[in-house]
């Protein structure tokens, strides 16, 4: 709601906006905080940068279109201008992250496990996960005020990326690489200069896999060399399938069929990680499944410039 209070409802992912608002109205009718029945409600998506998108009652599956820090607001039309992002998405507090106390191996294992769970269910959530992991990498590094600790995080993320690649989770592997390539992170000259040579060389190799030239040739060669189970970089898997599905052309049907066959092949063997649970296992699991991220690129760049001003 506009005052950042919220209601929880249960609905299908494919639910129409009109149905969602009916459920919200019913919930509010019996809420002690909302003694009077609300007027005509609209459903609005608000991003962390304050951009708003008003949905039509006939729109479907709006949950699958939300960005990492995009929230749905229900309000009356006259309240639209009062909608603001959640306070924690506008303000950030510098300080050490929980990640400092976690091992790269354990974080990588939990990333792989969670990605496989998502990939085994619905790939729309995996698309959002890709963006989430990218912004997590940037957020963690840019919130770290200490230069030595920032270099440690840089090393840890490269190690996490290497471990994800080793376990054939190309989703988190490339998301980590793209997160480190975020302009707000890549401009941190002092931080990158503190990185040992072998880590710099390893990251350059990772960037080679992420190179989009020649229709992502390097990435496709890596995928072709692997056997199931593997978690692909889903945005590339789905590339080009959206608009052509609607056109219902013969070529598009072939593309969609090939994509479905690929997904079935990648998960034709069950992923099983041979991991000994540690005392910190549950803490790391909870951390990886509820990543706290900043997805506002302007804010990330401001944080970057405060860490290392442009004239440094």
TrEMBL record:
Q: Per the UniProt entry, what is one GO biological process?
A: Ras protein signal transduction
Q: Which SUPFAM superfamilies match?
A: Ras GEF, Ubiquitin-like
Q: Which InterPro entries does the annotation name?
A: Ras-like_GEF (IPR008937), Ras_GEF_dom_sf (IPR023578), RASGEF_cat_dom (IPR001895), RASGEF_cat_dom_sf (IPR036964), Ubiquitin-like_domsf (IPR029071)
The protein's UniProt keywords, in alphabetical order, are: Guanine-nucleotide releasing factor
Q: Please indicate if the UniProt record lists Cell cycle as a keyword.
A: no
Q: Which GO terms describe its molecular function?
A: guanyl-nucleotide exchange factor activity
Instruction: Note one Pfam family from the annotation.
Output: RasGEF
Domain named Ras-GEF: which ranges? 103-310
> Which PROSITE patterns does its entry note?
RASGEF_CAT (PS50009)
Q: Which GO terms describe its cellular component?
A: plasma membrane
- What name has this protein been given in UniProt? Ras-GEF domain-containing protein
What lineage does the source organism belong to? Answer: Eukaryota, Metazoa, Chordata, Craniata, Vertebrata
């Amino acid at each position: 709601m506009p005052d950042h209070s919220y209601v929880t409802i249960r609905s299908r992912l494919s639910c129409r906006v009109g149905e969602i608002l009916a459920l919200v109205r019913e919930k509010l009718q019996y809420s002690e905080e909302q003694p009077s029945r609300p007027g005509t409600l609209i459903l609005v998506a608000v991003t962390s940068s304050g951009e708003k998108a008003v949905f039509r009652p006939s729109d479907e599956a709006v949950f699958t279109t939300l960005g990492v820090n995009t929230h749905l607001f229900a309000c009356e039309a006259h309240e639209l201008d009062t909608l603001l992002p959640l306070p924690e998405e506008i303000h950030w507090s510098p300080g050490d992250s929980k990640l400092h106390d976690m091992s790269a191996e354990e974080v990588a294992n939990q990333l792989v496990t969670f990605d496989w769970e998502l990939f085994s269910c619905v790939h729309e959530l995996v698309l959002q996960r890709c963006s989430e992991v990218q912004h997590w990498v940037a957020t963690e590094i840019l919130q770290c005020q200490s230069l030595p600790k920032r270099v440690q995080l840089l090393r840890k993320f490269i190690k996490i990326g290497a471990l994800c690649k080793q376990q054939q989770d190309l989703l988190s592997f490339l998301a980590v690489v793209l997160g480190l390539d975020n302009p707000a992170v890549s401009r941190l000259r002092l931080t990158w200069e503190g990185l040992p040579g072998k880590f710099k060389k390893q990251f350059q190799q990772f960037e080679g896999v992420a190179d989009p030239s020649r229709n992502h040739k390097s990435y496709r060669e890596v995928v072709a060399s692997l056997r199931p189970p593997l978690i692909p970089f889903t945005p590339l898997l789905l590339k080009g399938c959206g608009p052509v599905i609607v056109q219902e052309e013969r070529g598009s049907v072939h593309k969609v069929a090939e994509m479905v066959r690929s997904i079935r092949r990648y998960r034709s063997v069950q992923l099983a990680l041979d991991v000994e649970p540690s005392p910190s296992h549950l803490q790391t699991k909870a951390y990886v499944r509820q990543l706290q991220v900043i997805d506002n690129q302007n804010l990330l760049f401001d944080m970057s410039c405060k860490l290392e001003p442009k004239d440094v």
